[in-house]
Amino acid sequence: MWWDVNQAYAMDQLLDWHMQWDANVQFWFNNQPDRNYIHEVRTDHNVYEAENWYWTDLPTPDLNEDDTWVEEQQQGAEEKELGWATPAVQIPGGVERMVYTGYTSWNCDCNAYFLTESELTQPSPWGGDWLPERWDELGRTEIQGSH
To answer: Which of 12, 78, 99, 129 could crosslink 45 through cysteines, CB 3.0-4.6 Å?
Structure first.
């Protein structure tokens, strides 16, 4: 669901909802304790900038990341990632959850998209980073004439 505040440089919001993991997801996460869970949203980096703001009824994420300008130029997209380091205790099974993320429009009359993915990540062999191992596309929203 999309909330477009029709005001220059106002923060628009994307709501991902009805997200529900299998009832036995904790068992699966417990068998892979080095895995993390990421909720990722990508959009057009020339139209929107991700804000630090989010709201979720999941536990507080361990990661709240917006890509740097250099990463955005290389990828051709703006990415917002919220991540949970211990999903076996943080991601409930069998219960619907939601995540809101906020974006500032660059105030152009442009078309854009929002693509949301659910990612299972693993530790980077170089340390620190969470690298995608598997992912599912949760949804795509097309925006006509964003402001």
So the answer is: 78
